[in-house]
Protein 1
Amino acid sequence: MEKDQAVEVSRIHKVDGDSKLKAFVDISLCGIVVKGLRIVSGKNGLFLGMPRHQGKDGKWYDTVYPLTPETKQELQQLVLAAYQE
């Protein structure tokens, strides 16, 4: 990511137990805090889930999402590295 779009992990709240949900993460981006990212254990290892809300139809919808696959990959690498420290 470019320097003017520096992303920092501002908080990691690890979840105890045997759940697939491993942690909730907040990040800061250009002076804005994005809350509710999730680290989840999937069949191919850990991955980053975006914040989401449940619609009136009962389905879940992402409220924040990266515009490109490259941005998603970079964000996931940054957050998982902070989680594993």
Note: The longest strand covers residues 32-42.
Protein 2
Amino acid sequence: MSYFTKKQNSAPCPCGSGRTLAQCCGKFIDLDETPRTALEVMRARYTAYALGHNDFIRASWAMEKCPEGVLADPEYKWLGLKVISAKDIDETHAEVEFIARARVGSRGAIRMHERSRFEKRDGLWFYVDGDMLEK
């Protein structure tokens, strides 16, 4: 069962990969496939935020670090993602640096620049935490 309509699945993926949602992050959010890299998890998390899929956001977050409550705020309209770098530290640790842009209700545009840390546990990559790099 897909979380997405046919129209959504054939639309460009919000992560900016140039592929359709079905070919890109949709297959991870639908849990049809497991992301093989931290970069795939990060792109899928961005897409889940953009489309309001809290279940995937929570499932891809290291359980001990995941905050309570709703994660994908509907007031945020995500406008774009730019991946700066993605590097494996070792077999179970990776970092992804990115810039995400959004429009937030009456507050206007925001730019989020983060270096995210990921850990591979039991064969699955999880977002652990990140550092905001500039305002």
Note: The chain has a mean pLDDT of 94.
Protein 3
Amino acid sequence: MRVGDAMTREVCVVRPDHTIEDAARMMLAVDAGLLPVGTEDRLVGMITDRDIAVRAIAEGKGPETAVREVMTQEVKYCFVDEDTAHVAKNMGEQQLRRLPVIDRDKRLVGILSLADVASHEADGRRVGNAYRDIAQPGGEHNQGAEERGKGM
């Protein structure tokens, strides 16, 4: 199955010049823990509720802080025409539960979550394998790795 058949097409996008308070309110409104950051239809980053908590609030930044100051700029993504089995495997290896979906012109067209893949998959092996990989210690967003580097 192709990513375009499983992805969520309705995506709430926050701009880099929005405040983190704006982003948090948007997350609340759509019941999401992350938002793509974009200008027009171009993906320029991602912001998560954890980014707001760790990169902003914990560092003493206020609600008027611009999203661009705390967003992740190096974004992993997948293409709308890729195979979901391949993408789910990569998501597990990268320890990601969601990926923005872009077309071949690099325009944001959706979000793919492992839940999206699971709801379109006949058996749950691929998603189960991806979740198993995600649950492994490590990865770039591992709190323990960050804390060890700070000597806490």
Note: The chain has a mean pLDDT of 84.
